[in-house]
Amino acid sequence: RQHEAPRRVKRAWVIPPISVSENHKRIPHLLVQIKSDKQQPGGVIYSIKGPGVDEEPLGIFSIDKFSGKVFLNAMLDREETDRYRLRAFALDLGGVTLEDPTDLEIIVVDQNDNRPLFRQDVFTGRVVEGAEPGTCVMTVDATDADDPDTDNAALRYSILEQGAAGMFSINATTGEICTARPGLDRETMGVYNLTVQAADMSGDGLTTTAMAVIHLEDINDNPPEFTKEEFSMEVEEQAAGVDVGKVFVHDKDLAGSPSWLAKFTILEGDPEGAFAIRTDPHTNDGVLSVVKPLDHEVRDRFELTVSVQNERPLEPSAPASPRALATVRVRVRDVNEAPVFRENPRRISVLEGTPPGTAITTYTASDPDTHQIQTLSYALLYDPADWLKLDPHTGTVRTKRELLHPSAFLQGGWYIALVLARDDAEPPLSATGTLSIEILEVNDHAPQLQPPAGVLCGRPGRGGTLLLGATDDDRPPHGAPFHFQLSPQHPQLARNWSIARFNVTHAVLAVLAELPEGPYSLPLLLRDSGTPPREQQQLLNVSVCHCGRDGACLDGALAAATAGAGITLGALLIILGSAVLLLAQPCASKPLPAPQDAYDINQLRHPELFSPRAKPPLRRDAPLSSGTPMAPRKLPSSPSDIEDFINEGLEAADSDPSVPPYDTALIYDYEGSGSVASPLSSIVSSLTDEDQDYDYLSEWGPRFRRLADLYG
């Protein structure tokens, strides 16, 4: 089988690209004639298809179907479509294809019909003043819609207008604008407006223009300068925190910038720092003010040297300022000033009991106005107790009456008064001084024995002790500690009696030998700790009773009745133990328990049935010198009267001024077992009475078992 040779297209049917210029105005215009090699006797029918024929845009191209001539029917725009690709067909009269379709390409040739266009109408750039030549500022750029491969779109840039200085240049190809010469000075010209041009055809074609605005940025190349070399001001004395005046400066740099903002310094003339200077942020002037009060009498004028500079350092290339320093003269005006108490408050000490009319101090003020002749007068502004008298001319303070302790007008031993000093100017001015008077305590009272009587067992060791106390009307340090001793004038007392210190206010009287019953008067010497100490001899009335085995008086009722305000150490233990037991009882908010069998209410109703004596007991707890107590009270006739009976007894005990308030009916009994109260661990455990016998505590029931273990 023979291979078919490649099919050869007839040369007449191959159509080379056709070029036509855009904007061709002769319409219709013959572009080309196509022709098929297969010419038929009856003829050939030609047709074309594609964009510009039967596709958008329609009607631009057409063909004579019998001759094959292709025509241009409309003006072309290369910027819209730069080429068209069509298909040509050859058919016989019957519509049968004679040739394969062939390509018909129409190329639109560019014309320079578009001007260059800048991307914006105004370009903005910034450069610091004083920039070196060749410093690039900004770039302007334009576009051209023509064919970029032709000179129709080849752009060139230039500066048409920038003023006479010619400070800037532009790169013709890139449009970059740079400084061309030195000497850019913002203070001379702060903004440059350049007119720039772009032209196609490499600068010979169509053109367009735009504006390039260049702002010069300020640098600190101009120092601030005072407007004059000297400034004068004045201010009143004693004024502080006030403005005195302004110093004015001028700076050519940009207002409001750090290169313009001034900073002032006081170099000389103000060693005490009485002045300050700040910058007014709006005007850039210096504001001088007084920060410490000025005294005309001390110094009536100041001459200050003030310098000025910028917040930002000056450029090295900037010239030095001949007016960077100025002299400011300030005059201090004299005004009336109030008197002054140099010592305020004035503190003095006065002994209590100082007699009336005694001069205790002279409290005066001084007038700062030494250049004015003025007289000061004085008055008491505050004297709450009316204790003082003040001389209005000399300021001498005297007592009007005795200053004594205690007083409601004393605060911690101090008396406070206020003194007013006034000058005679017009209008007058005054000042107040505080006078603090310490009333010194004087040791003018000796300690007093309290109580002056007591009762104790006449046998050493058990019940043979009595607790003594003392009081002193003087305040510390003229009171306690107190010293108790038997009178040195009666040395024989030391054979039967001894006194030992108990604490700073009490002592313990003890029997050294067994003594018979009866009253005893012991002269005691009591001394305080004042300076100098005060002492006084006093009598202590002691009743010695017959002692029982437990160290108490055999007749319990008699011992209770004859017990004075002084108490034995054993009784002190019992009282303290009872107080602890009372505190340990259940809270009062709980229901009261039913009466126990141990408490017999009949003793309150019929005490005569339970007393071994026919007559009511007499109280023997009063001093030996006291009178016979009142007769027995009427007994209650019914249970409802028992409360009144008890209250009357309590009132009788409280109203007795000679003894402590011991109740007239004290009934003790065992309250039963199983109580929730805690055991007593220690009562006056600091006492060290080794010679005491506390075995009897074991007989008092389980409540005192702990005490019996500790002291038995």
Automatic annotation (TrEMBL):
UniProt keyword terms in alphabetical order: Calcium, Cell adhesion, Cell membrane, Cleavage on pair of basic residues, Glycoprotein, Membrane, Metal-binding, Repeat, Signal, Transmembrane, Transmembrane helix
One GO-annotated biological process of the protein: calcium-dependent cell-cell adhesion via plasma membrane cell adhesion molecules
Subcellular location(s) per record: Cell membrane
Topology in membrane: Single-pass type I membrane protein
GO molecular function annotation: beta-catenin binding; cadherin binding; calcium ion binding
Transmembrane regions listed in the UniProt entry: 557-584
Renumbered residue ranges of the record's region Disordered: 610-640
InterPro entries named among the record's database cross-references: Cadherin, Cadherin-like_dom, Cadherin-like_sf, Cadherin_CS, Cadherin_Y-type_LIR, Catenin-bd_sf
Domain Cadherin: 12-118, 119-226, 236-341, 342-449, 464-554
GO cellular component terms, A-Z: adherens junction; catenin complex; cell surface
Domain of life assignment: Eukaryota
Function: Cadherins are calcium-dependent cell adhesion proteins. They preferentially interact with themselves in a homophilic manner in connecting cells; cadherins may thus contribute to the sorting of heterogeneous cell types. M-cadherin is part of the myogenic program and may provide a trigger for terminal muscle differentiation.
Protein name: Cadherin-15
